[in-house]
Please model this.
Amino acid sequence: MSLSILCPVCHAGTRVKDSRPIRKMNAITRRRRCEACDYRFTTYERVVLGAPHGNSTYQGAANHIRRALTSLEGLAKEAGELDDNYP
Model:
């Protein structure tokens, strides 16, 4: 899935001109340029991993994991324990 970053000045589409990793922050800095007004700005992008919010989202994810695990021999027991470990 691609997320389009819009220009903060004119709200048109932008292009990435330069990307660099920042190891201390576990992030990526990107220099962007607006295709319409030529405004240049920097974005800092960081991946945040965490549990999904809401019980229905968790149940959907648990069902997908359970199906994947049950297809592997010997892991059906661990798949059944997902509900027991949910807070």
Remarks:
- The first helix runs from residue 55 to 70.
